[in-house]
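Researcher: Go.
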Amino acid sequence: MWREVERGRQQRTVHGLLAIDAAGAVAGWTFYILHGRTLQVGGLRAASADAARALVDGIFASDLAAAAGDIRSLRSRMRRRWMTCCRRVV
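Model: Structure:
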């Protein structure tokens, strides 16, 4: 799988974000693509609820999200889901 992600990154078809904490360390990462008019998140890993929130917000602020069409309800559901998961883990 990671070879495909790297190939997509090099071809600029796979997009990604890093969450950086106050100390400058990586606190999370995500990668995503636009397939047709569907925004697909391939992975998201975060060390904290703040990092997860920043990554989800970053995905939905992207040009790909804008091209995906109406995703407002998905954004709120995704944020609730990730925040619930993070609260259970942290």
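Model: The chain has a mean pLDDT of 81.
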